[in-house]
Amino acid sequence: MNVIEVKGLKKSYGQVHAVRGVDLSIPAGEIFALLGPNGAGKTTTVEILEGFRSRDAGEISILGFDPQTQGYAARQWRDRIGIVLQSAADAGDLTVIETVKHFSGYYSKPRNIDEVMSAVGLEDKSGALIRNLSGGQRRRLDVALGIIGSPELLFLDEPTTGFDPEARRAFWALIEQLRGTGTTILLTTHYLDEAEALADRVAVINNGLIVEVSTPAELGGRATAQAVVTWRDGSQIKTEATDNPTAVVARLSSHFGGEIPELAVIRPSLEDIYLKMIGGVHE
Amino acid sequence: MNKIPSALNLGIRRGGLEIRQFARQRESVVFTLLFPVILLAIFGSVFKDTIAPGVTFSQYFVAGMIASGLVNTGFQALAITIPMERDVGGLKRLRGTPMPASSYFIGKAILIAVSMIIQIALLFGFGLLFFGIEMPTELSKWLTFTWLVLLGSACSTALGIAFSIVPKSGRGASAVVSPIVIILQFFSGVFFVFTQLPTWMQQLAAIFPLKWLTQGMRSVFLPDSFAAQEVAKSWETGRTFQILVLWLVIGIFFSVRKFKWDRD
């Protein structure tokens, strides 16, 4: 059974159709990225799956539960999921360790506190007040609170916004570690390199509809798209689009008698493909 | 089925956490806990006369200070701080965990009750030492006092949580909540002798719990002979109990049904 199963999800705010029929199937253990520009319906979709918003139509099963479940069953459900929201700035007067310990008390089978602290790299900050943490450290605390309950499913909303490159790499390593524990992860992000580095599959959402679901390597026909070979010929930069870049390089190599000046073979980046996709479906 | 901790257990843990957070905001701790003492000092120095044989204004005022302390510490503080917690995303984060709303409410109730007990102890201490406040000697008055503080604190907590849905943001909450509390204090006979207020003011005040809390506290701190000077010529203890319970039920109903975890 899939961890996340969504069929025909719809949600409108007055005249605005934020989500117009989204289908998603995410199996256990997958890291799935949802990409889309602001206003595409990304946040609305995720917040409905997290149980924060109601829906107008559609069927949803998250770990076998409807996110609108109330009462004790909802507590059972929330015991099995973790949510890392965009920027929370609460509890500034508590220390890191107090907060992590307190949240661990909410769950039936919390993870070991020391393990979580070192997984997010906050073991040196355990006695620090939260309000004295840097933005990146706060974000790592958010993740610690999201994973403390050993969730089977983790929602990560824009997890590395505002990180410096080093902190992002460290964060990616943390997610890879979670992959090793079999946690299913639904990630939303603005950063395409992040989706490419982490996700098994990505979905692009635009205007409230899923445009495509694919692996990052194959999205938008990227794997089979033409490559562009560029090189210098005398004073000119030459380019050639081709399905067979190796043959082109071999031909050029024999033409130049070995080294090709300023040779580059360029495949379209995920970003190129993505921008083309979200540009192409505007009404 | 996983064995998740009970709502009461989590509520008690939240109470501990709330107290710890409160205790770390030093300025706010000092001001909140000493506020009734400060007011007693000011009013006790201004009004030195007796309002009835053997009843000083300070003695009358202690009753009002404890009653309005309940409203300030519970209703006012929660109706202002909960929207702030909501603004910074703290409530939404909690909503995403298996902790139920009832645990959050129990945690707040514990914080308010503890804060009230400290406030009252300080007020008694300063009142005895500097303002010649007389303590009741009969056990029955102390029993009345105990249920008034517990019920009043619960009622104030529930109404504060319920009213926290009204302010749109934490920034504006104080502007919405504080005037209501101040007007209620004037109407309810906290700062003035209740029977000297215009009748319409008395009648309006009688709808809300503060008037009844204040009157109940007077029954504890003033001699029984003073009861004859109340509007109803009696302390109306039974009616006070009923009205506080009614407001408690209203507060709990709206807290459970309408509580807002998120800004929009």
Structure description:
The complex is a heterodimer of chains A (283) and B (264). Helices cover 32% and strands 27% of the residues of chain A. Chain A is α/β, with parallel strands linked by helices and 283 residues long. Among the domains of chain A are: 131 residues, 3-Layer(aba) Sandwich (Rossmann fold); 60 residues, no CATH class. Chain A has a six-stranded mixed sheet, with helices on both faces. Chain A has a three-stranded antiparallel sheet with strand order 2-1-4, covered by helices on one side. Chain A has a three-stranded antiparallel sheet with strand order 11-10-12, with helices on one face. In chain A, strand 1 and strand 2 form a beta hairpin. Chain B has 264 residues and is an all-alpha fold. Chain B has one domain. Chain B is 72% helix and 2% strand. Chain B contains ten helices and two strands. In chain B, strand 1 and strand 2 form a beta hairpin. In chain B, helix 9 packs antiparallel against helix 10. Chain B starts with 6 loop residues before the first helix and ends in a 6-residue tail after the last helix. The model of chain B has no long low-confidence stretch (mean pLDDT 88). Chains A and B meet through helix 2 and helix 3 of A and helix 1 and helix 4 of B.
How are the secondary structure elements laid out?
The complex is a heterodimer of chains A (283) and B (264).
Chain A: E1 4-13, E2 16-26, E3 31-35, H1 42-49, E4 57-62, H2 71-78, E5 81-84, H3 96-104, H4 113-119, H5 135-147, E6 153-157, H6 165-180, E7 184-189, H7 192-198, E8 201-206, E9 209-214, E10 227-233, E11 236-242, H8 245-256, E12 264-266, H9 270-280
Parallel strand pairs in A: 3-7, 3-8, 5-6, 6-7
Antiparallel strand pairs in A: 1-2, 1-4, 8-9, 10-11, 10-12
Chain B: H1 7-23, H2 26-46, E1 50-52, E2 55-56, H3 57-87, H4 90-95, H5 101-130, H6 139-163, H7 170-187, H8 199-205, H9 209-221, H10 237-258
Antiparallel strand pairs in B: 1-2
Helix pairs in contact in B: 1-5, 2-3, 2-5, 3-5, 3-6, 3-7, 3-9, 5-6, 6-9, 6-10, 9-10
